[in-house]
Amino acid sequence: MNRGRSLVAQTTRARLYLKREQSYTDNNLVVLFELIRGKSEERSRRHRQLTPREREVLFWLTRGKSNAEIGSILGIASATVNKHLERVYPKLGVENRVAAASSFGLEHERFGDTRSN
């Protein structure tokens, strides 16, 4: 089924395959893996910049909750939830709630986290 491809990395929900090419050298592959790892380290660094409250908001965002629902759960106004999200987007390098939820979910799945600090 995976003709011409090699499985190079795997998580519980994703697999990374590399298409076999004659032009690939060991050095090319090392550079590729370093780039992948660098992106992961950058994402981890960005997530460490989040406040505990921002992490709580993102936790509920990844569960599909609206701002009003998150506000009710956390005992804050939905406008406050929105302000937290406005501050989160640049910290994560994203532009919207879907990208923020995806970034946060990927980072915490990687470490097996379900909830942050």
Summarize the amount of helix as a percent range: 55-70%
Extended strand count: 2
The end-to-end distance, rounded to whole angstroms, is 42 Å
The arrangement of helices and strands along the chain is EEHHHHH
Strand content: 5-15%
Mean pLDDT: 76
Task: Describe the SSE topology.
Layout: E1 5-10, E2 15-19, H1 26-48, H2 52-62, H3 67-74, H4 78-92, H5 97-110
Antiparallel strand pairs: 1-2
Helix pairs in contact: 2-3, 2-4, 2-5, 3-4, 4-5
Key attributes of the depicted protein:
mainly alpha; Rossmann fold; two-stranded antiparallel sheet; elongated
Describe what is shown at a glance.
The protein has 117 residues and is mostly helical. The protein has one domain (5-110): 3-Layer(aba) Sandwich (Rossmann fold). The chain has helices at 26-48, 52-62, 67-74, 78-92, 97-110; strands spanning 5-10, 15-19.
Give an overview of the whole structure.
By secondary structure, the chain is mainly alpha-helical. The chain has a single domain, classed as 3-Layer(aba) Sandwich (Rossmann fold). It is 61% helix and 9% strand. Strands 1-2 form a two-stranded antiparallel sheet. Helix 2 packs across helix 4. The longest helix has 23 residues.
